């Protein structure tokens, strides 16, 4: 595992649990608006001081009295060749495991589900399928995105003890209200869909990227929520992300 960071405690990344977050380094997308260039850009990753897997697991072993779960985020965790074995070790330590993914490697997500190595999966919906390449910065097989959505919806339907969420970070200039409606249609019937407001930070994957404005207004977000809500079981705006 290429581990670019460790948040030792979080009450946000794994809803309902006191958790730690492991940030993997490397991604198969290149979203211009991504907040984590240090986990995405190959040149930056090569120069970074990465954490060893042993170091991270030793820390987590020492914190079992205080932590309930581990969120694996990124970057994109599913590009890591030893993700499965890492999850196995987390399970041996007694942790619930949450995976954050962009959905481009459904075969990896499927394996983790079948081996019962994850308890919670959060998948990003970046754009309507026709706009994926523009938004994620790479030409991708959108059929993989659809496959991951289908997989997660089926998993949730047959395993009520697990948690599946879909989420979209909405960026001025990239996303319009019709896009939100089309993204909600992609995940029609989903248990929960979170809309996250882009807030322009100091560092992005593409430093030349200039959104139309720093973020959407609360009234605009309410309009987005209104068009998405009829298509899913629950749609919520996250304003603290």
What does this structure look like?
The chain has 241 residues and is of the alpha/beta class. The chain has a single domain, classed as Aldolase class I (TIM Barrel, Alpha-Beta Barrel), CATH 3.20.20. It is built from eight helices and eight strands; from the N terminus they run ββααβαβαβααβαβαβ. It has an eight-stranded mixed beta sheet with strand order 1-2-3-4-5-6-7-8, with helices on one face. α8 (218-228) links the parallel β7 (193-197) and β8 (235-238). α4 (106-114) packs parallel to α6 and α7 (177-186) runs parallel beside α8 (218-228). The longest helix is centred in the middle third of the chain and has 17 residues, at 142-158. The chain is globular, with a radius of gyration of 17 Å.
């Amino acid at each position: 595992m290429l581990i670019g960071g460790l948040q030792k405690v979080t009450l946000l990344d794994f809803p309902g649990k006191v958790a730690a977050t492991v940030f993997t380094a490397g991604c198969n997308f290149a979203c211009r608006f991504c907040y984590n260039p240090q986990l995405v850009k190959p040149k930056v990753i090569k120069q970074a001081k990465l954490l060893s897997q042993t170091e991270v697991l030793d820390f987590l072993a020492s914190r079992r009295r205080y932590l309930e779960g581990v969120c694996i985020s990124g970057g994109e965790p599913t590009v890591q060749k030893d993700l499965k074995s890492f999850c196995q070790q987390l399970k041996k330590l007694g942790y619930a495991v949450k995976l954050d993914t962009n959905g481009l490697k459904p075969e990896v997500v499927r394996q983790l589900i079948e081996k019962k190595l994850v308890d919670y999966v959060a998948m990003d919906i970046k754009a309507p399928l026709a706009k994926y390449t523009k938004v994620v910065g790479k030409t991708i097989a959108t059929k993989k995105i659809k496959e991951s959505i289908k997989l997660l919806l089926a998993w949730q339907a047959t395993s009520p003890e697990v948690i599946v969420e879909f989420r979209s970070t909405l960026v001025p200039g990239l996303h319009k209200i019709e896009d939100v409606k089309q993204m909600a249609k992609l995940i029609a019937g989903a248990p929960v869909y979170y809309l996250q407001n882009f807030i322009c930070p100091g560092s992005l994957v593409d430093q030349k990227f200039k959104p139309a404005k720093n973020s959407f207004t609360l009234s605009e977000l309410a309009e987005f929520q209104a068009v998405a809500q009829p298509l899913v079981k629950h749609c919520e705006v996250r304003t603290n992300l």
